[in-house]
Every structure is written in C-alpha cells, then in structure tokens.
Amino acid sequence: MDFRAHVYSPLQNQALWLAATLYGEASFDDADYALTELGGPQRFEDEEYGLAPLIRQIRSFNSGFMDSFSSQPALSLTLAGPGTPVGLPAASAAAGLATGAGGAIVLASERARAYAAAVPLYGQGGTQWRWFELEGYPPAPAYLSPGEADFLLTTATREAAELIERMGPIATDLPNPRLTVGTLSDFYDTPGLPSSIAPRAAKLIARADRVSAIIETVTARINDHTFDPGLLSLGRHIRQARMSAVTYATVEWARVYDRNLHAR
Fold first, then answer.
1. Cα distances (Å, whole numbers) of residue 243 to 21, 106, 126, 163, 217
2. Fewer CB in 10 Å around end: N or C, the chain?
3. Is residue 250, in this structure, part of any structural domain at all?
C-alpha cells in the first residue's frame, strides 16, 4: 500500500501557489517554477503546455467573487482518502477523477449554487488540469482553526510515536530512524511555500509534514504493516490539517487583497 498517497499530495502546494498568484502575493514566474517542480510541465485541458491558461481560467471564473470580500476563500483545497470523501457531486466525472487524483482545487463563484473544480491528472508528461463547472453548493472549506488542527496533529504525533515504540526490535532494522524522518521531511518541503504565507499556516503544514514522515518511516522504510489500520486513521488528521492550512492562508491573502482594493 502506498501510504504517501494518503498523507501527502502535491495539490497542497499547488493550491497555495495558485492562490498566492490569484491574490497578487506571488509572481507568475515563481508559481510556474513551483508547479513545474511539483508536477512537471503544466497543461490546461488539451491546450499547449503552460500555466497561463489555467491562471487565466481561474481569474475569469471568480473575479467577481474576489471583488466582494467573503469569509469563504476564492480558492480552497479538498483532499480525498480513507475517511475523507472528496466532497464533489457523487457519481460525477469530477468526483471520479478527483478521488483518483487525491483531491481537487475548488473555485468559488459570485453566482449562487455554482462553483468550479480544477482536477490535476499526474503523468510522466507533466500535469494536465481538467476543469469542471458544477451546480450546487461547493464542499465546505476546512474551517478548523490552525490551533484546532494542530491539536489534532499533536494527538496524531503522539499516537504515531507510540506505534513506533511498540514495534520494539523491528524498528532497529532501520539504521537511523531520526535521519530517515528528517530526509523524508525534506522531501515534503520541496519546492517550498510562498514567502507571504501566514506563519500559522506554514507551521501547521510543517507539523503535517513531520507526522507524514514518521508514518512513512514506520511503513515503507521499516516495512512493517502491523499498525496499518491505526496509521490510516492518522492520515485523516493530516489531510484535515493540510486543508485547514490552505484555507487559513488563502483567507489571510483575501483580507490583504480586499484592504488594498478598497484603499485605491
């Protein structure tokens, strides 16, 4: 079983870089570099490779929403996994693709009961983004505060540590568990976050990355699956933390955007 798919998705950083670009907090070149690092060359639908068509589509879709500040972010993240449904309309093509991709980026609309979902399809040739405009209410953004999500992750960290300790002699098969966890944490950090991200969101993501590295050390590196059911349940807390961090960061960027818009 690929546990990394349950605790990590490049969608987290892709969503953050797209949101930062949308709110004028990151340059197009920086976002293009980051998304290429995360998923190779970017393509929107069947157009030629390049990030510009996706950015253009997002701005066109929710520009009216952004002009009127709302506590709901213009862009949010939904992640799928055991115990975490993707939240898009059941049996729809969007939900099917998003579940397979591990999630989707959700775009708010100024129209009532309308929203869009951008779903990445990862492959050797890069990332192809599929666009769906949907009727109804979008999946609710992760409204847990960073403090609440961090508390859940603290509990998850303690449980993961207890699982490792209970493994006893099995864990000694790994020459340096702490070094392995640190190496995996470095993987999760690539390619970094937008410099203007709210510190509380960045700290929450760092905690999620650390717990993810511990889980991967226990499973893939030590290669013992005795505690798979318990570790899978921890993945839900990690996904919740990642979604909460994206929501918090995006709402903070929206506040700055709204303040600058009305100061003109």
1. 18, 11, 24, 25, 23
2. C
3. no
133 is in which domain, residue-wise? 4-140
The whole-number pLDDT of residue 140 equals 78
Report how many domains make up the chain. 2
pLDDT score at 97: 95
pLDDT tens track for 135-190:
988 887 777 788 888 888 888 777 766 766 666 555 445 445 454 555 545 555 55
Both 113 and 157 in a single domain? no
Q: Do 28 and 96 have their domain in common?
A: yes
Q: Tell which wins on pLDDT, 93 or 124.
A: 93
Q: How far apart are CA 238 and CA 228, in angstroms?
A: 15
Say yes or no: 135 and 13 in one domain.
Answer: yes
- Residue 229 is predicted with a pLDDT of 62
Out of 4-8, 132-136, 152-156, 249-253, least confident range: 4-8
Q: Is residue 106 part of a domain?
A: yes
Q: Are residues 124 and 183 in the same domain?
A: no
* The pair of three-digit structure tokens given for residue 83, joined into one six-digit string: 């115990």
Residue pLDDT, tens place only, 89-118 = 988 999 999 999 999 999 998 887 899 999
The one-letter amino acid at 36: T
Phi, psi (5° rounding) for residue 107?
-115, 130
